[in-house]
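As promised in the previous annual report, we have extended the structural survey to additional targets. Below is the entry for Phosphomannomutase/phosphoglucomutase.
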Amino acid sequence: MTDQIDLSLSFKAYDVRGIVGETITAETVEAVGAAFVDVLGLAGDTVLVGGDMRPSSPEFARAFARGAAYRGANVRMLGLISTDELYYACGTLDAAGVVFTASHNPGQYNGMKMARAGAVPVSSDTGLFQIRDLAQTYLDEGLPVSREGAEGTVEHTDVLAGYAAYLRSLVDLSGIRPLKVVVDAGNGMAGLTTPAVLGDALLPGLPLSIVPLYFELDGTFPNHPANPLEPENLRDLQAAVVAHGADLGLAFDGDADRCFVIDETGAPVSPSAITALVARREIARARAGGEQTPVVIHNLITSRSVPELVQREGGRAVVTRVGHSFIKAVMAAEGAVFGGEHSAHYYFRDFFNADTGMLAAMHVLAALGGQDLPLGTLAAEYEPYFASGEINSEVANKDKAIEHVLDACLGQDVSIETMDGTTVAANDGSYWFNLRPSNTEPFLRYNGEAKDPETMVRVRDQVLKIVRSVA
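The corresponding structure token record, generated without further manual editing, is:
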């Protein structure tokens, strides 16, 4: 028993993230494994458990398995997996599961992403906080006595080959023109999944020449943080693409559920452009299968080019809040064929409404390899606007800052939406911007877009000046 660790410090809205040995330990994880089974009613059912390459992941996976088996679940240990491998396993095996990962966070962190059978996410709205509270009780008071003979079994299963074959079945790359691809795994799980899916480690080779960058699995991240959202973490990939004369570069985060794309010149391709490119492919495929108006999901701060393209291609765009649990819920409710976020999370109906960076990368490879233009030229079609990117301002009173910005907009011909933060859009379509308070940090996040670079810069600077003047 312990009263030293407060689980509310590591349980977030969508997953669990903590500092190893401080806010997440083997003891807390064992209690969470037991609570996972009890809250979700999984006694007698299969529970899948895997982990990434972080040094603490194997120990934590074993601890979770002990807690889950003690409460009657039959555990299948998946070993080293990416997060989207867990979703694949939960979908194809119709079982709930957990992967130990802290995604792009530094090496001293670890955490858990949980899913129900069918890869349905477990978030604060769908049981995560109930699991937290029951696990806290088990930590403070001890696990309840298990009925004799009621404990479950623990077996081992490898899903990498099935995962690779499944992705290959969704996007056929066998007939594309030869492409040279630099892949930066960031010492994360893409170092294992890339050779399996895009290489010839488990399946016949494809017309791809893979140049590996940091494929060694190392959860201490000795080369750079596995967070491709930060521009400095793309520099090695950008240089390698140019040096090798590659057709493109792919950068994955630590647990390989996000993918960023670099063109042949070393320039990043925006996630909004990737969303539009994949949306076009998925709409065309759905319509060819008889679907009249396929639905594509995008979040509020994705480029306006995405809903415009979806409409042109005969689909229907549905906007949702930022966050994977929101998008997955809307994907399911709408029967959407695809969804994309500005953070480079891409969701597929054919992948259990879950996000997978590898499948998005395969769509990019198929689109590029199916024609002769370079990626920079191909992507330009999907980036007609000029974006600011996400800019953070540290503001103590976020609401007051937004209020001051709205006061400055009085009398202007704009529309205002408050679905996810505050979005101001010029009614003539010349610009829009969104101010969204961070839930976990003292930041106000600015994202903006305009039809020309001068307007984008002017609006950005005016808004940020107001925001940063607020005490």
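The mean pLDDT is 95. The radius of gyration is 23 Å. These points will be discussed at the next consortium meeting with the crystallography subgroup.
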